[in-house]
Structures
1.
Amino acid sequence: MKKTLSLSLIFLLLIFSAASHAQIGGKSTYKFLSLPSSPRIVSMGGDFLSIKDADINLALSNPSLIVPELNNQLTLNFVDYFSDINYGFISYGRSFEKLGSFVGSVQYIDYGRFTYANDAGETAGNFKAGETALIIGWGRQLDSTFSIGANFKTIFSAFESYNSFGLAVDVAGTYQNEHGFAASLLARNIGTQIITYDNGSREPLPFDLQIGMSKKLKHIPFRYSILLTNLHKWDLTYDDPTKLKTDPFTGEKIKEDKFMDFLDKTFRHVIVGVEFIPTRNFSVRLGYDYRQRQELKVDSKLSTVGLSWGFGFRISKFQFNYARKAYHLAGSPNFISISTNLSDFL
């Protein structure tokens, strides 16, 4: 009875969230909450995973992966982003027999230092800008196959003298069977601004409704992952001013191929990734994000925009992960993490 009630509440929240949110792109605030921080997630192309193997780095984006095995795990994640921007998170796990398992996290982004100038161009010192979220994640295993979880977020944002405060929650459910298959349903960043910038109007949060699937092959050391994102909004395309709408020779309007247009809109929701695991202490990963490539590629130059790769290895009591993702010809950020279980030192 309790399991049925819990699952019903989760799916009611997911349906309500999908019906009441429809924004994307630059129409929301606190966008740092959607930035991928874990190298393992980034190297497989997305911003979350459905892999349930007691990796604390995955818990921040998918709270239904919070399990008792995360007890006393600690992880530090850092991203050397573009220009002077950097961001990351720190997480620590703790489990209690009756209450469930918890992961506490601090997620931040530092936009760097800026020069203050008035309308006349006169400078008057420097200021910094940044955002922080304090997050408590909870997860519980309902039975041998189903688990649920939620993240509760308090969000602080400061841009010079403009400040904002907000609250948000993620809800998720994961199914896993004995054959290595796992699937997650996730609704992220359901919430609101409590204090707005300069007492202005409230801005929506970067809500996303997602489904993730992963499968570890039985006789080959491979795992594949398929992510479906932004399921609350079908058309993720935009009006591209560089796209030819009329034939330059005849002046006639170019007819769109409806089938190819349908495929383009479909695959903008899909992210694929693979993980090669030759030993328990070493793995190599690769991912591809079709939508990112379509939005950021430069047609006149060959590039790897949309592709990501990385690896992970264990040395003694520490797990190291590294990833690199080609966002644009302008550069590719580096993603680094180090994790350990503090119980190993006792």
Note: The chain has one domain: 2-113+126-234+243-345.
2.
Amino acid sequence: MGLPPEIAKKVKLLEISTRKLVNSLFAGQYHSAFRGQGMTFAEFREYVPGDDVRTISWPVTARTGKTFIKKFDEERELTLMLAVDVSGSLDFGSKDNFKGEVVTHLSALLGFSAAKNNDYVGLLLFSDQVEHFVPPRKGRGHIQRILRDLYYHRPRSAGTKIGPALDFMQGFLKKRANVFVFSDFQDPSPFSTSLRMLSRKHDTIACVVQDPAELSLPDLGLVDMRDPETGEVLTVDTSSGAFRRAFEEHMKRVKIERDKELRKSGVDRIDVMTEGDFTQPLISYFRSKSGMKGAR
């Protein structure tokens, strides 16, 4: 079945809008940040003083009568997994973009950067269940397919449960991967254990997407507020200072619980807002990772 023209147009526009950043700064930052994820065997060569004795190949040494070592090359082909929250709370935004739109744009930026490096890219969409899974493959066409899925997929559920999605990915991924988890992490159930377990084998990064209105509610008078995950609608008076304070206190408690879970997981974290240049936090993260690699 062909895609609606508006979806195909969105995918094409997204590729065009990210191309310049991918081709300039971001492509180099992406590769240097994640180089050296693994090593592949290249050849045997004779041992010379100063070589690491742990690389000596004893079978070859015994067979030839000379000391040989195994030489390894850095594994250049990496695997990038995009784990994307498609629950109801991502369908919200008070500025120019919804949280889900920001996630799609950042996924495109990562995906095309990985494709430029000839890496494998996969996709996992989740709500309170695994919604959709695309195994890692290579190529620009594959990235376009992933973006079409991000635009076109209609979630079966509006709830959020991060743990089962990460557990599913842990069971599927056999080769070491770089996993970016895009979510607002508004999950009432604990998820730190699943994140921590995933990070033991895979480089795991939590990308926390937020909207300014979730932190401080503006005065808009009487408005109908709909819970995006339960569908419940409530008419509230946002001109009431008492209501706005109560709302902000509630969101503070949500943030405290979320941040506690993320700290317990021990994974890297990137905070992204829906306003301003939302690509900058991702670029800053890669710059810092590249600097750390270069300092080793």
Note: The radius of gyration is 23 Å.
3.
Amino acid sequence: MITLFGTRFEWNSPEVLLIGGAALGLVLFLVLILRVAGRSATATEPLLREMGWLAQRVQGLSDGQERLAGGLHHVGETQAVSQTAMLQMMEVRLAEVQRAMGESLHGTATRTARSLGELHTRLETIDKAQANIEKLSGNVLSLQDILSNKQTRGAFGEIQLNDIVHKALPSDAYEMQATLSNGKRADCLVHLPNPPGPIVIDAKFPLEAYEAIRRADTPRAVNEAAQAMRTAVRAHIRAISEKYIIEGETADGALMFLPSEAVYAELHANFPEIVREGFAARVWIVSPTTCMATLNTMRAVLKDARMREQAGAIRKELGELYKDVDRLGERVGNLDRHFALAAKDIEEIKISSDKAGKRARRLDNFDFEELAQPDPKPLPIAPAAE
């Protein structure tokens, strides 16, 4: 092929042959013009040589064109064979790629479906969790409403104390809202044996002072909140000590129940002097966790006391059993004597029975002739009675 003016043509195409013919005609036209002009042979000889050389070049170009056409034909055939082989190879490769893509798409679709299923399950779990969170948020708001009022907050502490005591002690070991001899009503009275005796548990919740400590952001606010906490807890300790520790009726101490682990931790971390004051007033501050531990200890004390009571009852029953066994021994001895007498009587009855049997046999074989013989010694006649 040959490129002319940016266009590719075959060597034997009409356009190329037309251009070659036009070039050859142009050469002949120049030769004719030179002849018509009547130039001298000397002047035209170089031109003729050039023309001859140009004709040879054109002939060579034509021959080269034919050879190039043959080579291009061979190259075209080779290229066609190569293209055919390449197309076949590309078809095979394309089939393999399509198969691989199909398998990959199938696997991807399966994994996608499984992932969508797992995602759906997780979304359901998230929806349930969100519902639980919303419910919990409502409960938290309700709890905030409860804790914002002193009366409801006190009821909340009493209910929590009731739950803890109910789980730790048997039902006959305590009394809720028990009234003492001084007319004061305790949240819970645990019936411990003497010593130490019945002990009172009273629920208190100084929430305002604790929240003031949490909200304090300046040193002055912190000091004021801490003072409020000391005042509130001291008032609770004094009230419990005065109301619920009665000599001869209750134990020489009482428990102040804080229904918040956070408030309990705050007291022990930052107000140890308040805790010591409670010890001095024989009022022990407990949280839900420490209250459960204390009640378990009380349960062990109750169990030990009841075991001692049962041991005394067992000893009493053993004494009664010993008396019963002693009486049983006496009665067995009496019965043995009765059996001995009965055996003697039976033996005597047996002897009498044998004698009676012998006499009966003799009577059965009695000889009446012997009975007819006179008695040599007649019996005396008794005198008549006056």
Note: The first helix runs from residue 14 to 37.
4.
Amino acid sequence: MKTIIVPLDFSNESLEGLNMALMLAKKTGANVQMVHVIGKNIDNNVELLEKENQLANRKFEEILKKCKEGGNINCALNYTIKEGKIFSEITDLADKFEDSLIVLSTHGESGFEELFIGGNAYKITSHSKNPVITVRKSKISSNIDKIVLPLDITLQTREKVPYTVKLAKLFNSEIHLITVRASHLKSIEKKLYKYTEQVCSYFGDHDIPYKVEHLTGGNLTDIILDYSVSVNADLISIMTEQERSVSNLLLGTYAHQMINKACIPVLSFPTYHLGNYAEDL
């Protein structure tokens, strides 16, 4: 991770995303790039556009000053102002940086409100070719001590493992590997146990402390969230794009529910960016 992109609407909620980014940057040495996007609704009004630019510049300078006074900057912290469709401007910006990550607050009060509330927050995670961390009403910890990593039966479910392990190494995290399924079919159980063995072997090779739980139930999202709260997790690692199957853990609606409901930061991976699962898994 070399650059962390942080969309801001300057609300208290969006600033929690910045706090998460600064915490990550402290451990990874990444640069932090803040961004505010002026929506298309005022593109044709030159006066409003200029006022919005001036306001955004002033807000960013206030943030920089506050961070410097508080001694919270130990990385390159910059900002940029864009105009256009919010989700496309943010994902395009992330694509311009090598090994980038987006940290996105999912609820705001102004400016980005249309994006951050409900299904619109999912636009960034579903369009991004880079990993995204979503933060919703989360109190940002000073470290990532515990990571919950759910597995399903799709081949792609393991693609998030190497990246998650890299984070765990940086933060000395314990990974909670969980399988969650609605079906009691033996074929699904067998595949999940096989994947679990492979991933646990990978953890062992990289000296990652871990725990394993096999859970069954109806609402898979709630099961994952309840478990994450019960172990006081600091991060949940999921996939956003998977094959269409009724057996999937986090296909579309589940990832959407997770992002909208989780009060724990959620790290989402797009499979078409990460490529095939690691050969050594």
Note: The chain has two domains: 3-135, 146-274.
